[in-house]
Amino acid sequence: MDQHANGDQYKKKKPLPLVCRNWSESFDDIEVPGTPKTPRTSTTPGHEKCTFHHDLELDHRPPTREALIPDMARSYRLLLGSLGENPARQGLLKTPERAAKAMLFFTKGYDQSLEEVLNDAIFDEDHDEMVVVKDIEMFSMCEHHLVPFYGKVSIGYLPCGKILGLSKLARIVEIYSRRLQVQERLTKQIAVAVTKAVQPAGVAVVVEGVHMCMVMRGVQKINSKTVTSTMLGVFRDDPKTREEFLNLVHSK
Predict the structure, then answer these.
(1) pLDDT given for residue 11 in this prediction
(2) 158/65 Cα distance (integer angstroms)
(3) pLDDT of residue 156
(4) Could you tell me the mean pLDDT of each successive run of 10 residues in the chain, 252 residues long?
(5) How far is the CA of 30 from the CAs of 50, 71, 147, 209, in angstroms?
(6) Do residues 177 and 139 make contact, with C-beta atoms less than 8 angstroms apart?
């Protein structure tokens, strides 16, 4: 058969047109359960009886983070005693307060919302090419053992008339990583947040993490890494778009 007889099949296919979706109809499908919403509400575990959630006319406010320190410090003091230590000795005298403040910092994402962090940093822009920010440093706390896991996050999205300030992608990572987490949920929450922010044609997130619960205890595999990804929209539907993103993420 003449190799030119069916020459049309060798022509480069035109890329599929970019489809902008109405993501507001899909939020219920891609929302991720399991982490308390911010700010804390009467449906947040432990806050069911807080009067400031129910009567806005009362001069009640959620306790400040500083107000939580005494109770948390007492818990750390009890923990030290349970380990057989003397919480009153010089080296440990201020440890409970320091540990309480550190834990509040590690989990400050509970008191941050997406709207607060975006702070109007969404701009109308006629740009429909891929935007990728890679190797965003991430530090989080494993909810199973309360020990850290850390790594890097790469985010890509295809705008549909709106772009997000680049630093805000790092801030989104900070919101959800500064909570008690599992890496799988963290990955999807970041993708959902970017989707809500700019309504793009698609979002892709890849997270590479080192989990101290595997390094310090259990199997103690110090060189192991966990890689998770979430692909939404065109990144899920179009293999070429997904491949382009992954090539950019893995390039040096």
Answers:
(1) 47
(2) 38
(3) 97
(4) 49 56 54 50 57 49 79 96 96 96 93 87 90 97 95 97 94 96 96 95 97 83 89 96 95 83
(5) 30, 36, 28, 23
(6) yes
Please tell me the predicted confidence (pLDDT) of residue 59. Answer: 47
Specify the pLDDT at position 217: 81
- Per residue in 174-189, pLDDT tens? 999 999 999 999 999 9
Structure-token pair, residue 234:
């065109």
Given the residues 112, 142, 160, 199, the one annotated as active site: 142
Distances 71 to 99, 132, 221 between C-alpha atoms, Å: 12, 43, 36
Query: Would you put residue 101 in left (φ > 0), alpha (ψ -120 to 50) or beta?
Result: alpha
**143 a catalytic residue:** yes
* Nearest-angstrom CA–CA distance, 108 and 104: 6
Catalytic residue among 50, 85, 145, 244: 145
Residues 6+ apart with CB under 8 A from 194: 155, 157, 164, 169, 172, 200, 203, 205
Catalytic residue among 66, 144, 243, 250: 144
CA 195 – CA 223 distance, rounded (Å): 33
The residue from 183, 189, 199, 208 that is catalytic is 183
CA separation for the pair 27, 95 (Å, rounded): 43
Question: Annotated catalytic residue: which of 20, 97, 213, 244?
Answer: 213
Q: Is 3 a catalytic residue?
A: no
Q: What is the predicted pLDDT for the residue at 222?
A: 79
142 part of the active site:
yes
